[in-house]
Amino acid sequence: MGRNLKFSIEKVFEGARLGKIELAHGIVETPAFLPVATKATVKTLSPKELDEIGTQIVITNTYHLYLKPGTKLIKEAGGVHKFMAWNKPVMSDSGGFQAFSLGLGAELGEGKFKYDVGERPKKPVMERKAYVNQDKVVFQSIYDGSYHELTPEKSIEIQEALGTDIIVALDECPPPSADYNYTKESMERTHKWAIRSLKAHTTDQAIYGVVQGGIFEDLRKESARFISKLDFDGIAIGGAFGKDEMYKTLDWIKEELPDKKPRHLLGIGTITDIFNSVARGIDTFDCVGPTRIARVGYAYIRKESGGNIKNKFRIRLTKKEFKHDFQPLDKNCDCYVCKTFSRAYLHHLFKSNEILGLRLLSYHNIYFFNKLMREIRESIKNETFDKLYDYWMN
Amino acid sequence: MGRNLKFSIEKVFEGARLGKIELAHGIVETPAFLPVATKATVKTLSPKELDEIGTQIVITNTYHLYLKPGTKLIKEAGGVHKFMAWNKPVMSDSGGFQAFSLGLGAELGEGKFKYDVGERPKKPVMERKAYVNQDKVVFQSIYDGSYHELTPEKSIEIQEALGTDIIVALDECPPPSADYNYTKESMERTHKWAIRSLKAHTTDQAIYGVVQGGIFEDLRKESARFISKLDFDGIAIGGAFGKDEMYKTLDWIKEELPDKKPRHLLGIGTITDIFNSVARGIDTFDCVGPTRIARVGYAYIRKESGGNIKNKFRIRLTKKEFKHDFQPLDKNCDCYVCKTFSRAYLHHLFKSNEILGLRLLSYHNIYFFNKLMREIRESIKNETFDKLYDYWMN
């Protein structure tokens, strides 16, 4: 079946690509940032707001929707677009990353993995919340501890029920501590799963394959070559741990990836990472960062307002210094929040545990990212991306 | 100094009054409902949303703003309108009700009072969180247990700093269990405080006096007469406990109140209470109900959608029966929420602890009240209020 994705590159400037992804629910101009709608909602924001702040596409988590409210319900609703009342493009992930990482995510902290390779232990042990073999990953639900299996076929089945514009083949994201042998074994599993995923896929939804290979140059290149030659509509890059490894990885695989397929960097979203990844030919990004940190009081601020690499382009509104600060949140931002409210008011909302505070910073942060991506696109068009890069990164 | 309130009655139909209150920040068409902006925010909603759902005026709590962020900060901000970015009218209460009731509110439950009459105990006793004598009420902060004094003069001073359109004289709301003697003593204190409040008031903000008198006919009438003859711009009615007592109270005092002053019923806000109070000549109401119950999953539904006195015109979205219900929240409501989302999606948001759920029901519930008040106003104008009353109340 023909797939509903058309990608065109309008311009390449010093490695940065200006493009357009045409999908069933609309066009995504790239480079683009995807806010994360974990449970079919970008936390605290309405679809109307996402639209008014220039969001082109969101990504939703297969793991979460599969467990709650369940695939069947979303199918009944007519798909995730109808369910969440968002008529623009939606991407879904494969569910693999959460199945592996959420096993003990809460206890170990983000980005720390703990799972077994091999057969399922006879007795469920609470410390083992995910294990993987050649066929599948088995994981315990974060909601009730119940066991679930995820196979490549099942992930595709769920994502087809969600009806998202872009689906992703199941992959294994190896633990950061994995050695060469484990990483190779894991990559080969991901490759086999990629083939199974394509075979299982029956609709015209676009499908991306995932490049893995950890921190090893030969594996990354091998994975990029392998995934690139399969019948995927786009390439996702997974398992990028730490800035330096990530940039190296992107440099390694750049030449191995086909120009004509869009490239998505999974789970990446600091300002610095975005600039450096765009410079390495990445087209789309997703990250919970902008909304997650909003909910603990962080707001992104623009370079001309004092944002820089050191302060990570953000201020924390809960700090005392903002109590009497009657300036706009960011005087160089033209979003509703910055045009309407003072830092002192936002500080008050956070100090008073008012939900409006979480909303307003989430709104501003996503607006900030959308605007930055727009500026990046314009700079590629105008061949000034190098200047924009220098301005923000120095 | 002249005060910035002009009240006109356009029509009276079977006791129900159609009117208009002109204030410094705009006009309020009455009967009207005031959403409560406890801490300078109507919980979960933005001022833009309040405006788009037809909110004419909000009420904010002097007690809360005095403690956090503090009067000084709001004065610095240029008043509460600027602080919360709401350019339409704002009313403030006197702070008395919270000072008395929040002493042990959390422990005893809403509407239950516990405080002492007399001198301040030498040693702070945790069970005594508010006490009152002829001069003042002394209370412990819900935030840090610190002691604060509220006098009529101080309440006026705070409310003048807030810069609200309508301020309220400090009163004592006696405990529901108070006997005749205590209620009389308390009422006389309220009356003395009313005189002191007027004397202390220096700006052109409109000021309302509060009628008390508990459940005793002669006291209520005496209080209504006393407060009415003072130089207040409007009359607030306080301490209405329970439906039957409240309706009786309104009947008792109706004849004692001057026609030409607006009448505000403090803290009242069920559909039934609103219909019955409008029928008894009340012009404005405030209540945390619509937003508070929204946050635990209740949505108001219209009569034609199955709302009635028995179900209190509401459904609880957290219930299992809504899991697969893909109908709009209320098919006879034309707000953004009802035009956009299904009950099943709202159910999912609540089951997943998503903030968007709290927002959407708060939005709908305030829209519901604003629309109902608009319909009530039209029905008075068209002399069909009796029919509207019968339709909703039977």
Written overview of the protein:
- The structure is a homodimer of 394-residue chains.
- Helix content of chain A is 40%, strand content 19%.
- The first copy, chain A, is an alpha/beta fold and 394 residues long.
- Chain A has two domains: 5-93 and 152-287, TIM Barrel (Alpha-Beta Barrel), CATH 3.20.20.105; 298-393, no CATH class.
- Chain A has an eight-stranded parallel sheet with strand order 6-5-4-15-14-13-12-11. A four-stranded mixed sheet of chain A has the order 7-8-9-10. In chain A, strands 1-2-3 form a three-stranded antiparallel sheet.
- Chain A is globular, with a radius of gyration of 21 Å.
- The interface between A and B is large, with 37 and 37 residues.
* CATH top level class name of the largest domain in chain A: Alpha Beta
Quick one: which chains have the greatest interface?
A: A-B, 37 and 37 residues
Instruction: List the quaternary state of the chains.
Output: homodimer
Strand content of chain A: 15-25%
Mean pLDDT of chain A: 92
Characterize the largest beta sheet of chain A: strand count, sense, and whether it forms a barrel.
8 strands, parallel
User: What is the CA-CA span between the terminal residues of chain A?
Assistant: 48 Å
The figure for the number of domains of chain A is 2
Low-confidence spans of chain A: pLDDT under 50, at least 5 residues?
104-115, 119-128
CATH superfamily of the largest domain in chain A: Queuine tRNA-ribosyltransferase-like
Count of DSSP E strands of chain A? Answer: 17
CATH topology of the largest domain in chain A: the name is TIM Barrel
The shape of chain A is globular
CATH architecture group name of the largest domain in chain A: Alpha-Beta Barrel
Our count of helices of chain A gives: 15
Helicity level of chain A: 25-40%
Q: Radius of gyration of chain A over alpha carbons? A: 21 Å
The computed structural class of chain A is alpha/beta
Strand arrangement, major sheet of chain A: 6-5-4-15-14-13-12-11
